[in-house]
Structure formats: structure tokens, C-alpha cells
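Handout, section B. The chain below has 314 residues.
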Amino acid sequence: MGAFDDRALTSGARARRRVGAWYEIVPPSSFTSSPGPVAAACVLAAVASRFHWGLFLAALFGALFLHIGTNVVNEIYDVRKGIDTITSPRASHALLKGRLSEREAFVVALTAFVAATGLGVWLIVERGWPVLLLGLAGLIGGAGYTMPPLQYKFRALGLPLVFLLMGPLMVVGGYFVVTGAWSWRAVVLSLPVGLLVAAILHGNEWRDISDDARAGIDTFSIKAGRRAAHVGYVSLVVGAYVVLSMAVAAKALPPLTLLAMLSLPLLVRQIRSSELGASGQQRAIAMIDLQTAQLHALFGGLLILGVALAAAAK
């Protein structure tokens, strides 16, 4: 479908259309997977009485800007490769319908990456060269998700790298940025968070097996097949709860972090949807990535609350 000529629209209508296109290509509904890990790290920092508001906000917005840039670059290359079409489930139509040009989308992505880099420079000044390595990993990981030459999303490497980047890297890195120290507790806390972030991506790839295969790209779901993709999804979402339980049993995390178990109703919903999807009812997993993001947000919020209450109870 060609670009729509908006010259007949009023200036207000054009502005609303443009803002709507930016919202669609970003999109904010996916942001639960970037502020959550940083917030978890900073609650741990507060427990250690080493919290710093300025550094926390810089880390938070740095992660958010990296996420925005990654989302936009992903959208550009999904459209280029023909993965996203008008009929694709939950695909952004901002580029497909010409509400935003590819050049404008690149400007949005570049602006986000530059903003993240600017915040990173300040954090490097405050905390030294380890932040440079963390920042480079985040920047390369974000841009290289779908952008050449890495394009690791299309090489069946999305799941492990997203787990590492938005789990351990963000939580452990966020803790270091705020405190200037490393913490094994941050590593433990990052594992269930990373598993649920990976589950968001995996649900998306599982749902889109047919579209991705037609576009000639590789994902874990395509390589493993639909049955293994279903097992993989359930393993990721259930694994987050198993890891948390084991961490509490080993006294690596305080018992109050089990407040995250209050999100179990959403877990049951996801398992049920995945069972229906595995039985051939594709509609049951049409929104699986968004619903898994909701699970991640609730689980992460309750986990953070548990850490904070444990600290207050000391």
C-alpha cells in the first residue's frame, strides 16, 4: 500500500498522525522489559545503602533510549525483509502505510541511541571503564539485533542474547552504575527477570513462525519446530518461578521476594494460551508477546516490592 498524501489534512490532524506513527513504531507498550531490570538493580542498591538518584535515573533512561532505538531499527528491517506485512499480527503499520518514512524512522532510532550514549558518557565519568564495556555491549546488542552486519535476530541468536542483554547485563550493570560495586545477588535477581524477557521474544517468534519462514530468516522456533517452541516458551515462563524459588531456598534472595508468586494467575493464563496455540488454535497466541510482557511487568514489580519490604524489615 502506498504512502497516504496528508497535505489535505489540517496541521493539527497531521501532527496527531505523526505522533501516532511515532507511538506505533516505538512502541511504549514494550517498555516493561527495560526499566524493570534497572529498577530491580537499584532497589538492591538501596538495600546496600548506596543508592544515588542521579545515577539511577541516568541508567534508567539510558536503558529506555537503547530500547527505543532497538525497537525502531527492528521495525525498519522487519519491513525491509518482508517479515511485517499489512496482515501480520500486531505489526506496526507506520512504515507499511507511509505514515512515517524509513529515513524519519532512522532519525528516531539514531536520536535514541545518541541520547543513550550521552547518558553513558556521564556514567563512564562517574564509574569508569567498566561502564564503557557495558554501554558498548548494550549499544551493539541493540543496534545489531536486526541491523547488518550482525542481525542476530535472523540467525536464531535472539533468545540467548536478549536474555543476557536485558537480564544479567541490565541488572548487574545497573547495580554497578548506581553503587560502583559488583553483587552476586544482582546476578541471582537477574535470572528470573531475564527468563521472562526472553519469553516475550520467544512468544513473538513462535507466533510468527510462518511469516518468518516465508521471509527466509532463522529463529529458534523455526529451527526447533512448533512443538519444541511450545515447550521452550513454557520452560521460560515457568523457569522464572522455579529459579526464584530456588534462590529463596538457597537464601540468595529474601523470602519476601516470593511476593512475585502473586502473579501466578497470569502465568496460568499464559500456559493455557500456549496449550491452545500448540493444539493449532493460532488465535490463542495472537497477543502472546503483549500478554507475556504483562506477566513480566507484574512479576518484576512484585519482585522489586519484595526486595524493598525485606530491606525495610531489617
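Note. The two ends are 61 Å apart (CA to CA). Compare this with the example in section A.
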